């Protein structure tokens, strides 16, 4: 489910940007006839794409929580819509370009926020706990630290009573499946393969398996 929503969001964002890019180009180049034709052709698809863009964006926002960058992104998207409507209705090139830049900027902020969030979460983990070369390295303790940083917000403390994640104390999922779900995501759970290496994923699974009652 999560993968499908991510894919839908990315595709809708790309199509949304493409439509506005074409319309802005036609407006700036004074091709009013072409703009009128394109506007008529994409009227219904644009409504569908806009709805998917906003709906999937809201869902993903609920999954990751809000930050200053995401709040700014939301404001930029909300401002860009009326600016675009006014810009194309009045054939105002400045407003049309501004709307397009706001949308592009909003997408860029989302990507920056994603990378910053994961970087910050990883930095809070004690380096001594994560040092596999340390003779006292404990994979379960390492996994617990990673779980607290990345998983606890959904699965809850100790794997129970989270805001949306499964109760891990009663999970019947086997070891291999757990590894795959953390790496590639599942249902409403995002993939972590871009943020956790193999050792870290193994550590998380090792800790999770100690939670089962």
Q: Main beta sheet, described?
A: none
- How much of the polypeptide forms β-strand, as a percent range? under 5%
State the helix count. Answer: 9
Mean pLDDT: 83
**Tally of separate domains:** 2
- Secondary-structure content class: mainly alpha
Helix content: over 70%
- Mind telling me the C-alpha Rg? 22 Å
Q: Say what oligomer this is.
A: single chain
- Give the N-to-C terminal Cα separation: 28 Å
Shape: elongated
Spans where pLDDT lies below 50 across 5 or more residues: none
Helix and strand run: HHHHHHHHH
The count of DSSP E runs of length 2 or more, i.e. the number of strands, is 0
Please provide a written account of the structure.
- This protein has 213 residues and is mainly alpha-helical.
- It folds into two domains: 2-118; 124-208, Cytochrome Bc1 Complex, Chain D, domain 2.
- It has nine helices and no strands.
- α6 (139-150) packs across α9 (198-208).
- It starts with a helix and ends in a 5-residue tail after the last helix.
Quick overview of this protein structure:
This protein is mainly alpha-helical and 213 residues long. The protein has two domains: 2-118; 124-208, Cytochrome c-like domain (Cytochrome Bc1 Complex, Chain D, domain 2, Orthogonal Bundle), CATH 1.10.760.10. Helices cover 72% and strands 0% of the residues.
